Amino acid sequence: MLKPSLLIAAALLAGSAQAGSTLSQFSYTGFFHEEAGQFLPNAHIDGYFETEDLNGNGVLERSEVSSFVLNGQQYVGGCGPEVFLCGLFDFSYTPGAALSFNSAWSTDPWNEAGVAGGEALSGVEVKEYSYWMGNAASYTLRWTGDTLFTISPVPEPATGAMLALGLGVLALGHRRRRIV
User: CB under 8 Å, gap of 24 or more: what pairs does 106-114 form?
Assistant: First the structure.
């Protein structure tokens, strides 16, 4: 018969292994700066996304994204106070493969002070632009063969707490056996 401490530990570990939403951080480093005409090895964009593989096919798709942030801008579930329109129009990620996304944002186009916006198409370019009182500026980073991609899962605090609790129960059970 299994001891109660082993049953509790097994239940805690099983609970922490349940499927659910996952949070992943990503970064791309090294881009060709279009306006400067040169490769910038330290230029980077980064972000994170939260997804849940609802259909269980192993591919995370746009309909399964609950949050997508790129360079501090949220594209799913609200744009923020300074942004008029934003969206994540395409998204696909298979763990161990490339991340694919298309996102865009814009300030109010009828604002008398000017308009700003941007678009990111992974594997192609990230562009930000602004127009104001007859002036314009843009900043374009293009992917190259030297652009590096990194991605890592972010453990949820509850997962760490469950693991710590489970290890604590195992340690307590081991200590009681040594005393007796």
Answer: 107/82, 107/83, 108/84, 109/84
pTM above 0.85, yes or no: no
Helix (H, G, I), strand (E, B) or coil at 178: helix
The larger pLDDT score, comparing residue 19 to residue 66, is at: 66
Cα 130 to the chain's mean position, in Å? Answer: 26
**So what's the pLDDT on residue 18?**
43
Mean pLDDT of the chain: 83
Residue at 35 is within a domain: yes
Token pair of 91, please?
């998204």
Task: Report the domain count for the chain.
Answer: 1
Structure tokens at 169: 């129960």
User: Could you give the CA distance from residue 14 to residue 116 in angstroms, rounded to a whole number?
Assistant: 48
Residue 173 lies in a domain: no
